[in-house]
């Protein structure tokens, strides 16, 4: 398996440390031509909301892609000592609520094709995860086709699935509804996980990265908990980002609700299928995540050059330098750290290859 071989070549022989795989990265530094294409789409929709999009061409050179990464994600990989990022298009720009199904289809294809080009330019640093061309009130056929294309043709290892393509109005059925089942069937067939990740909020009640993202993470967990998804798809895998939203902090509440609702215990119901990343931007938050959630369910991630890009004045380090929090946890053994940094991610993103 080509991608597996490339990953193993990255092992740090001198230190004896295995790889550090960041399971949550977005291409937030794309050249401006990508944004120009999107603005053109929006302009066409202003005159005709039902405008049937055509794909067109976005003229971005390899040199532009390299320049966009060298001073950002690649620089931070080197500085922070991480090896590979599981990389997807910019989450807040997925914008499923914009336009119609044709709008989302061609926008998504361009975004995914840029990620593929990155994986070809830097095969030892990035591997792809697919954006899906979801659209409110549309079926999932186009999204399923795009997932298959990205996995089969581009070597992608997962997808980002939004439970709310309306952008904060939550008009879609909950994740346990049969509406979603064709997507789950394709995920299982391809053996790829879905990171449950919403996009920008167009509802003014929500701040995109401060409330909409974290609220969606929490909502998704509750929807999974009250569904039969893991019974119907025993091998399906979901990653809930941003440390699981409010879930770890309120683990007792969710355990109690499961009991009151007559559901199986959470360990039995979900914890062979649902995983949490470490995009939590302070030491106490990571420590709580590690105290509450089983080790096997935690995947290293930073979402660097993402929602929170500044330096923490209390520590002098970047908020999103999450490796530091794992390294500084006082309870983890070296073996446990490596499980979080690499082995758990290989199990969940199984197309990477298992150690």
Q: What is the helix fraction of residues, given as a range? A: 40-55%
Question: How many domains in all?
Answer: 1
Number of strands: 8
* Main sheet characteristics: 5 strands, parallel
Q: Order of strands across the widest beta sheet?
A: 4-5-6-7-8
The name CATH uses for the topology is: TIM Barrel
Query: Which architecture does the CATH hierarchy give at level 2?
Result: Alpha-Beta Barrel
CA-atom Rg in angstroms: 19 Å
Along the chain, the helix and strand elements come as HEHHHEHEHEHEHHEHHEHEHH
Which stretches are poorly predicted, pLDDT < 50 over at least 5 residues? 1-15
Mean pLDDT: 93
CATH class: Alpha Beta
- The class by helix and strand makeup works out as alpha/beta
Tell me, briefly, the overall form.
globular
What separation lies between the terminal Cα atoms? 13 Å
Count of discrete alpha- or pi-helical segments spanning 4 or more residues: 14
């Amino acid at each position: 398996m080509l991608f597996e071989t490339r990953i193993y070549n990255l092992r740090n022989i001198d230190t004896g440390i295995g790889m550090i795989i960041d399971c949550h990265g977005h291409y937030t530094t794309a050249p401006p031509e990508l944004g120009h294409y999107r603005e053109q789409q929006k302009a066409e929709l202003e005159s005709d909301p039902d405008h049937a999009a055509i794909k067109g061409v976005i003229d971005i050179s390899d040199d532009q892609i390299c320049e966009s990464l060298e001073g950002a994600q690649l620089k931070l990989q080197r500085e922070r000592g991480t090896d590979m990022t599981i990389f997807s298009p910019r989450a807040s720009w997925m914008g499923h609520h914009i336009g119609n199904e044709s709008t989302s289809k061609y926008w998504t294809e361009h975004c995914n094709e840029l990620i593929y080009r990155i994986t070809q330019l830097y095969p030892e640093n990035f591997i792809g995860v697919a954006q899906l061309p979801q659209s409110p009130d549309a079926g999932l056929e186009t999204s399923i086709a795009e997932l298959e294309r990205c996995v089969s043709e581009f070597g992608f290892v997962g997808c980002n699935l939004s439970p709310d393509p309306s952008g904060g109005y939550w008009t879609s059925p909950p994740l346990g509804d049969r509406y979603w089942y064709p997507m789950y069937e394709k995920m299982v067939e391809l053996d790829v996980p879905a990171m449950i990740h919403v996009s920008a909020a167009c509802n003014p009640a929500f701040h995109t990265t401060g409330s909409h993202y974290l609220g969606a993470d929490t909502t998704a967990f509750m929807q999974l908990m009250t569904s039969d998804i893991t019974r119907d798809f025993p091998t399906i895998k979901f990653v809930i980002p941003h440390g699981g939203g409010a879930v770890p902090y309120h683990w007792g509440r969710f355990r109690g609700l499961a009991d009151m609702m007559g559901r199986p215990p959470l360990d039995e119901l979900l914890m062979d299928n649902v995983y949490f990343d470490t995009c939590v931007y302070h030491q106490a938050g990571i420590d709580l995540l590690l105290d509450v959630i089983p080790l096997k369910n935690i995947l290293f991630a930073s979402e660097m050059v993402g929602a929170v890009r500044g330096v923490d004045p209390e520590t002098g380090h970047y908020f999103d330098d999450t490796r530091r929090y794992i390294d500084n946890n006082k309870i983890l053994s070296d073996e446990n750290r490596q499980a979080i940094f690499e082995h758990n991610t290989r199990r969940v993103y199984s197309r990477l290859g298992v150690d």
